[in-house]
Amino acid sequence: MLLTLDLLAAKRLPRTVLPCLDDPALKATFNVTVTAPQGLTLLANTPAAGAATAAVGADGLNATVVAFQPSPVMSAYQLALAVGYLVATNATSSSR
To answer: According to CATH, what is the number of the domain 5-84?
Structure first.
């Protein structure tokens, strides 16, 4: 799981999001829906199934709500979620 640097300062923070049990018998599928401030990019292990804008909080700020497709069966530590001001880039290299 990808978290901001502030959140990573607490070494065990990912375990506050969900139990991280490394046991083959405890693999599961994950249904992830994320609400974040509008303008941020949201990514996960699976493609987005749908997105919407919603007013959240007492001040009614606009947020983006993204529901992702269910994940394949996997361990909890493999769940990835990235939220932030992300920019896509393309690079090419020449081989000789």
So the answer is: 2.60.40.1730
